[in-house]
Amino acid sequence: xxxxxxxxxxxxxxxxxxxxxxxxDIGRVSGAWARSDLASALANCQGLxxxxxxxxxxAITRLAAIEEEWLEDGLVVESRRAPGHxxxxxxxxxxGALRVSHLQAQRRVCGSPRIVEVVx
Length: 120
Hints:
Layout: H1 5-29, H2 35-64, E1 66-70, E2 76-80, H3 90-98, H4 102-119
Helix pairs in contact: 2-4, 3-4
């Protein structure tokens, strides 16, 4: 099945709901787990975090490559540039989306294209 914007959004919504349920369940049952089981759960969680961070880096790279252009009639259009291009307002958009400082967003915006390029 080909991925569409709607299917990706649905997957993200489903994943968010599953992670919320997982957090509740682990909070309730993990108190009796053995140390090795907790370490294994921790390692699995880190693997998920690493994967989601990679997904974020791809999204940041794509977002940063979009320039908004104002036409003479006042219409705003998006111009997509090659991955690696960084629009001037990209750190501001990322800061708002991730709820982080402008400096942290700028670091992610500048670093993400390099990371995505290495991974690709």
